[in-house]
Amino acid sequence: YEEKLYKNPAVGDTYEPGSTFKLFAAAAALDLSLVRPTTRCPICSGPREIGGFEISTWNKKYYKDSTLVEILQHSDNVGITYIADQLGIDNLFAYIKKFGFGELTGIDLQEEATGNIREKDQWRPIDLATASFGQGLAVTGIQMVQAVSVFANGGKLITPKVTDAIQSENRQQKVEPDQVRQIISPKTAAQITEMMVNAVREGEARAFAPKGYAIAGKTGTAQIPVAGHYDPEKTIASFIGFAPAQDPKFVMLVRFTEPSSSPFGSETAAPTFFEIATELFNYWGIPPE
User: Fold this and answer.
1) Is the model's pTM score more than 0.85?
2) What residues are labeled active site?
């Protein structure tokens, strides 16, 4: 039978990640010292126009002079495009590549896809803006998990592996990552982690979060491209994060394609993430703070 009939969506399916991708634009700007967590957005009082396209927030609410912390908390599209402006195409593209997008992670599973990041010479100003909030590019679930684990691992990018060890009759061979490399500073990783914890505690999904646990997370709601344009109704809703934030035991992505109960990640993927996280806390015997 054809291999495509047994496609593993975690490594073989690609999708536009939406607002979960804002973490990487923010991390790049912090790592290059172009902004600080307290940097304020001077253009966040309303929508903005770039190359004939209007950029607006997901809920049409605007927060004047938002800090970077608040931009991630409110998942503000306009705010993250301001951060992208400080980066420029060269820097954002370079960090997207550093985080492993557009190439195989090297996980020990068949049929891994690379995703799709268009060549840098094809980027226009509108592409810089939309990439900062995760539209106009395609990633796999395992790429997102690997990239967010950078924040959990103090700035190190580590090859994901399914196999822990290979056991034969008289010896055991430990399976090590193909690569472990520092791609952002530990300080930047810690800053993004704090912002993700704040986004969970103060963001749209805070009512669903288990009490007493510091969870670092980010919601995503991406429109689905159809025949050269975006479907006005259908979305991919997601939530990605890790916990406990200061001593992480797991990184997890929850993704729903075209959810029917709500189009938003904060109302679909986030509650599911928190339910599974609660089960994991119980499984590992991790008490509340």
Assistant:
1) yes
2) 19
